[in-house]
């Protein structure tokens, strides 16, 4: 037993001297978003906010869709309504007002507003440009589209707003229009099948205060095959056409 103990000691020392193994060697990176509120002159609880009479009527109609004990389920549509009234962003005052209206703890509303990227925690420009750079769009040239948007708006970087306050540009993940890639969303509208030329034309239209044609910019209708019709090229057969006579 003593011999076994003596043999075990150098083995333990060797194990302790072995180099440490790590699961990952990636360097940590900070998030580009701040999830904890910090009072600012333009965003603090002292700034009053409440729904306009028209929006309050709409909010109460939304709340009525839920049983009284579950009216907190209306938090997302009410935050969206507040963001739209507040020029496109969700301030701490908007969140506190929604919490009071739904009789929720403010922290529960903060959790929702910081989880969903649809809620902007900082002021944005009059036109909110979201350029998709996920894989399908990237394969179709979204990098060029993002570069075109940023350069055409005066050399912006994603996340910045033009000096005149007309445009804010961000880079986003999938917007759900992969078959019409590359694409971008401006405010509530999709602009698809983009090229550098059509992208500039769209931005110029918004700069002039007009709204360009939404959807595909290539001339095709919605998401139809760009190569033309390849299926159902003949009249489809009717019900029972291939059944035995007894069932026709």
TrEMBL record:
Named cofactor requirement(s): [2Fe-2S] cluster
Chain intervals with Polar residues compositional bias: 215-233
Manner of cofactor binding, per the entry note: Binds 1 [2Fe-2S] cluster.
Presence of the UniProt keyword Translocase in the record: yes
Entry-linked InterPro entries: NuoE-like, NuoE_dom, NuoE_N, Thioredoxin-like_sf
CDD domains given in the database record: TRX_Fd_NuoE
Keywords: 2Fe-2S, Iron, Iron-sulfur, Metal-binding, NAD, Translocase
One Pfam family in the UniProt entry: 2Fe-2S_thioredx
Single annotated GO MF: NADH dehydrogenase (ubiquinone) activity
Annotated [2Fe-2S] cluster binding sites: 132, 137, 174, 178
Superkingdom field: Eukaryota
Location of region: Disordered: 207-248
Gene Ontology CC entries for this record: catalytic complex; membrane protein complex; mitochondrial inner membrane
Gene Ontology terms describing biological process: mitochondrial electron transport, NADH to ubiquinone
Keyword Cell inner membrane: no
Family: Belongs to the complex I 24 kDa subunit family.
PANTHER family according to UniProt: NADH DEHYDROGENASE [UBIQUINONE] FLAVOPROTEIN 2, MITOCHONDRIAL (PTHR10371:SF3), NADH DEHYDROGENASE UBIQUINONE FLAVOPROTEIN 2, MITOCHONDRIAL (PTHR10371)
Name of the featured protein: Thioredoxin-like [2Fe-2S] ferredoxin-domain-containing protein
Organism per entry: Russula ochroleuca
């Amino acid at each position: 037993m003593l011999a076994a103990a003596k043999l075990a000691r150098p083995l333990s020392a060797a194990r302790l001297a072995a180099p440490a193994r790590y699961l990952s060697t990636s360097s940590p990176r900070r998030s580009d978003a701040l999830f904890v509120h910090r009072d600012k002159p333009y965003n603090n609880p002292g700034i009053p906010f409440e729904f306009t009479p028209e929006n309050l009527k709409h909010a109460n109609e939304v709340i009525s869709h839920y049983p009284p004990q579950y009216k907190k389920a209306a938090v997302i549509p009410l935050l969206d309504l507040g963001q739209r009234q507040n020029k496109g962003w969700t301030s701490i005052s908007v969140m506190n007002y929604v919490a009071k209206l739904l009789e929720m703890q403010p922290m529960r509303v903060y959790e929702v507003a910081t989880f969903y990227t649809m809620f902007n925690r900082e002021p944005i420009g009059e036109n909110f440009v979201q350029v998709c750079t996920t894989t399908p769009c990237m394969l179709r040239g979204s990098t060029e589209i993002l570069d075109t948007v940023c350069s055409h708006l005066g050399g912006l970087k994603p996340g910045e707003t033009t000096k005149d306050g007309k445009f804010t540009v961000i880079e986003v993940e999938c917007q759900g229009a992969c078959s019409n890639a590359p694409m971008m969303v401006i405010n509530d509208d999709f602009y698809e099948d983009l090229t550098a030329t059509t992208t500039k034309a769209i931005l110029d239209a918004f700069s002039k205060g007009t709204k360009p044609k939404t959807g595909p910019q290539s001339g095709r209708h919605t998401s139809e095959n760009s190569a033309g019709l390849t299926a159902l090229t003949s009249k489809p057969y009717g019900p029972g056409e291939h059944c035995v006579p007894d069932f026709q």
